[in-house]
Amino acid sequence: MNPNEIDLHKELKKYFGFNQFKGLQEQVVKSIITGNNTFVIMPTGGGKSLCYQLPALVLDGTAIVVSPLIALMKNQVDAIRSLSSEQGIAHVLNSSLNKTEINQVKKDITSGITKLLYVAPESLTKEEYIEFLNSVKLSFVAIDEAHCISEWGHDFRPEYRNLRNIVRQLGDVPMIGLTATATPKVQEDILKNLDMPDANTFKASFNRPNLFYEVRTKTKNVESDIIRFIKQHKGKSGVIYCLSRKKVEEIAQVLQVNGISAVPYHAGLDAKTRAKHQDMFLMEDVEVVVATIAFGMGIDKPDVRYVIHHDIPKSLESYYQETGRAGRDGGEGHCLAYYSYKDIEKLEKFLSGKPVAEQEIGFALLQEVVAYAETSMSRRKFLLHYFGEEFDDVNGEGADMDDNVRNPKKKVEAQDQVVTLLKVVRDTKQLFKSKEVVFALVGKINAVIKAQRIDVLPCFGSGNAFDEKYWMALIRQVLVDGLLTKDIETYGVLKMSEKGEAFIKKPVSFMMSEDHEYNEEEDEAIVTAAKSTGTADEALMTMLRDLRKKEAKKLGVPPFVIFQDPSLEDMALKYPISIDELSNVHGVGEGKAKKYGKPFVDLINRYVEDNDIIRPDDLVVKSTGANSGLKLYIIQNVDRKLGLDDIAKAKGLDMDGLLKEMEQIVYSGTKLNIKYWIDEILDEDQQEEIHDYFMESESDKIDLALKEFDGDYDTEELRLMRIKFISEVAN
User: Fold this and answer.
1) Digit-coded pLDDT (tens) for 210-228
2) For the CA atoms of 591, 596, 597, 600, what is the dihedral angle to 10 degrees?
3) Separation of alpha carbons 511 and 508, rounded Å
4) DSSP H or E run through 339
5) Residue 284 shares a structural domain with residue 232
6) How do 90-93 and 116-119 pair as beta strands?
7) pTM value?
8) Are 29 and 55 in contact (CB under 8 A)?
9) Most buried among 271, 405, 521, 639, using CB within 10 Å?
């Protein structure tokens, strides 16, 4: 068939059911059909696969598609097979096939049925396959996920490096490189490695105007924050990314316990479970998938409404790719990432065992992620700059779709400081990365500065009126503005641009916004304020205290035996209206809720109705009992009358730690019979004296008891007696 005679729109309709092409698709398809080497850079969701699928279906011969992931191939093959009555129209050739299946694939190719053959790069190194492919007509070779070729890409695969030589063995076949993420440096690298400098290059915009970007500090309460977020987006599909398999499992569990339908997905699960979880997500049987980056490659669910990064990814490419799975249908997509410098340090640790060149690249990529998280300028502008694209952050599409633009930081004039910075870069001969430049500015000495004798230059310390953080923030903004460039080949050395040279000669206004401070302590205060009395419902609190007093009188025990104050505060915050909900309140377990809970739940229920209170159901975060194993161990061994010091030792606890755990156990309503241990330390009379004290006391606070007994007993003895008392009287 003559390529010029093909009616592309008709073929598009016939195979894919679309009336028109999207974005650059048509130009790309034409370039491939006319037999040109082609390079396509198109963000995820831009319809990259169609660019080679359609030409493969209409051209004579078989197209070879090289892809790094078996799962991805399978998805694509299934999709193509659904377009045609011929099962053999698309095949996979990889290590998962047996002899019979391989022969079937060869037969279908030879008879001209197969239009697309998906292969892993490893398969192409086998002599017999090369020999076979040389004997049949090939239309072109497409290399999907082409960034795998480049060491600068975020997903480098050494087996990709040799692809050019392999393709050469197949004769003179046009080549197509496709990638969804590529910085200018990676693009250059791909073209060089595939040896196709003449390729027609098509680059779609990386801007996804419908995505909202947000970064929050990662505090201890990150899980309750995520639960709250999901409950605000009830009924919508979302993906949560974590770095480790263990974390994936943990988060999936916490979500399930809190009534959110979620499944884990990572490479440690067997193929059957993975496929099942993937299908559940696609079929909307579950709302959320918690996954490592193994997920999502090729998952085409158009209506993912949010992507949450529990851990920050290793590079901005990965981040862009993973967030790109949201809102593919053009509807809303919320991209939320949690950031703490601790996570960055963790990732740096991972790099430390790798070869030096790889480390350097890894560090350079991580620094970009840090810069993105901490910047206070438009996140969209920052991201697009990284991918070599200009963006107008006032009138551009989606300009107001990020947390920085919606809550802008105050800006300050930094014209003079920019001049100081540029001069330091110039006077130090443009040899250094950001860190050394900042050190030179503030006048700090390290080995590099010493060795290069920067500390004797007149510019050394010229910026010491400001701290390191300030200069780091300024460098980031000057880079995006294009006054400096980062040379990636040398792992991020700062170079002057022409624009920077001109700025020194003729400075103009430069408004700088201050970077975010991610300070856990500060942010902690915001989230945990909810636990203090300040925000609990005071009126309800008074009623609960009165009820507790009444119930205690009825049972002839002190009020704290029933529920402690922190538990009442938590009730006045969360308004539990069933026994089940009550058992999730701070310091109340199942046993206690059942034993004393009914009048309390009834009171709260009436109060909620009478006062039209909207209950914050999102605040009740149930734990999965991460240390429930420890609690179980304590209970079992106390039953066996094992020495407490031995129990503590076995679990690596000191006595204080063990007592804390035991207090939690008895206060949540479980009995612990430690009489055997107390009998060793205190005689009958002493025990009776302390028991009577707690029975009559208004409070169970130890410091009050210490005062009362005035040095007769120490803290440990009193705590042990309190555990025994609560266990006997309250449980």
Assistant:
1) 999 999 988 888 888 899 8
2) -160
3) 10
4) strand 333-339
5) yes
6) parallel
7) 0.64
8) yes
9) 405
Query: Residue written as tokens 């009020």?
Result: 559
- Enumerate the β-bridge partners of residue 289: 239, 263
Asked whether residue 288 falls in the same domain as residue 168, the answer is no
* Cβ proximity of 93 and 118 under 8 Å: yes
Query: Per residue, what are the HEC states of 647-713?
Result: HHHHCCCCHHHHHHHHHHHHHCCCCCCCHHHHHHHCCHHHHHHHHHHHHHCCCCCHHHHHHHHCCCC
The residue written with tokens 């005062």 in the block is 707
* Residue 659 domain boundaries: 628-730
Q: What is the pLDDT of residue 529?
A: 26
Q: Are residues 359 and 435 in the same domain?
A: no
**Per the domain annotation, does 283 fall within a domain?**
yes
Among residues 5, 131, 135, 11, the alpha carbon closest in space to that of 62 is found at 135
**Start-to-end Cα distance in the chain:** 85
User: In this predicted structure, what is the pLDDT of residue 532?
Assistant: 33
Residue 527 covered by a domain? no
Gap between the Cα atoms of 226 and 219, Å rounded? 11
Strand partners, 485: 495
Q: Is 600 helix (H, G, I), strand (E, B) or coil?
A: helix
Contact (Cβ atoms closer than 8 angstroms) between residue 32 and residue 51: yes
What are the tokens at 71? 């799962």
- Tokens representing residue 89 in the block: 């129209």
Q: Say if residues 263 and 277 touch (Cβ distance below 8 Å).
A: yes
Domain with residue 644: its CATH number is 1.10.10.1390
pLDDT digits (tens, 9 = 90+) for 143-161: 988 888 877 766 777 778 8
Q: Distance between CA atoms of 668 and 441, rounded to whole angstroms?
A: 57
Give me the phi and psi of 215, to 5 degrees please. Answer: -125, 130
What distances in angstroms separate CA 407 from CA 208, 377, 378, 412, one per listed residue? 20, 10, 10, 16
**H or E stretch covering 201:** strand 200-203
529: tokens are 């304020």
Among 184, 203, 222, identify where a domain stops.
203
Residues 266 and 308 occupy one common structural domain: yes
What is the rounded CA–CA span in Å between residue 78 and residue 366? Answer: 37
Joined together, the tokens standing for residue 452 give: 């290069």
Which of 450, 429, 430 shows the shortest CA–CA distance to 439? 450
Q: What is the DSSP string of 537-570?
A: -HHHHHHHHHHHHHHHHHHTS-HHHH--HHHHHH
Per the domain annotation, does 658 fall within a domain? yes
Cite the DSSP H helix spans in 611-643. 628-639
**What is the structure's pLDDT at 263?**
93
pLDDT at 712 over 50: yes
Is residue 718 within 8 A of residue 705, CB to CB? The reply is yes
Residue 653 class from Cβ within 10 Å (0-12 exposed, 13-18 middle, 19+ buried)?
middle
Angle ∠(166,29,60) on CA atoms, nearest 5:
65
Query: Residue 281 to residues 235, 264, 287, 304, 395: CA-CA distances in angstroms?
Result: 12, 11, 7, 10, 37
CATH of the domain at 594: 1.10.150.80
Cβ atoms of 189 and 149 closer than 8 Å: yes
**Distance in angstroms (rounded) separating the CA atoms of residues 163 and 173:** 13
The kind and range of the H/E element at 140 are strand 138-143
In a shared domain, residues 184 and 299: no
Closest listed residue to residue 179, CA positions, set 218, 158, 150: 150
* C-alpha span between 492 and 486 (Å, rounded): 5
Q: Do the domain assignments include residue 574?
A: yes
CB neighbour class for 489 (10 Å; exposed up to 12, middle 13-18, buried from 19) = exposed
d(CA 585, CA 141): 61
Domain count, the chain: 5
